[in-house]
Amino acid sequence: MGIHIVQGDITRALADAIVNAANPTMLGGGGVDGAIHRAAGPELLAACKQVPLTERGRCPFGEARITAAGKLNARYVIHTAGPIYSQSEAPALVLASSYRNSMRLALENGCKSIAFPAISCGVYGYPLNEAAEIAVSVCLEDEFKSLEKTFYLFGEDIVQVWRQVLSQHR
Ligand code: ADP
Fold first, then answer.
1. Which residue intervals define the domain Macro in the entry (predicted)?
2. Tell me: the pLDDT tens digits for 73-112?
């Protein structure tokens, strides 16, 4: 299945699973995380409080957790903590894991389509070109070929970057 790029708000996505660029607390935050929680309603935070975390109450960077989607037009929200670019020792590996683990959860839960934001590309500071390269390469891995993947990106600049990287892989 293909990879698509849409300029716009991921909370409007029609997909089996919407991926949230969350933080390790899984309790909501700013940016796309805040937008997803606002659109989904309080049910989403309640669901996040039920997911299994480490004994210190964290979802480790690069891992993902799945919940119901509240009022969103999706069956699931998949929350992943992408790397904080300046603080991660291996940001590329962690970012690839975020995409990979998100898609694995989607497949395990019978999803046929998934919507992604640009994980780590906001306050977490990931350089856009490198992030796009990782996002697209992982999406093209054989394991995920049955999933329809759509990136919802905020702003023309980031859409350009993603389109260029995608065209280089075609
Ligand atoms: P992170 O902490 O992983 O960097 P952010 O939420 O700060 O996450 O930003 C990730 C990306 O999501 C940024 O490119 C930001 O512009 C974008 N973004 C913010 N709100 C939305 C939204 N409603 N839909 C899609 N993308 C969004």
1. 1-170
2. 999 999 999 999 999 999 999 999 999 999 999 999 999 9
CB of 123 sitting under 6 A from ligand 1? yes
What total of structural domains would you count in the chain?
1
- The residue segments making up the domain with residue 13 are 3-168
> Rounded to two decimals, what is the model's pTM?
0.98
* Ligand 1 pocket member 121 (CB < 6 A): yes
- Among 38, 33, 114, smallest CA distance to 72 is for 38
- Nearest atom, ligand 1, residue 121 CA: 4
Q: Which sequence positions are flagged as catalytic?
A: 33
Q: Name the phi and psi angles at 133, rounded to 5.
A: -60, -45
Distance (angstroms) between ligand 1 centre and the Cα of 121 equals: 7
Q: How far is the CA of 152 from the centre of ligand 1 (A)?
A: 9
The CA angle 7-103-4, to the nearest 5 degrees, is: 25
Domain of 159, CATH number, reads 3.40.220.10
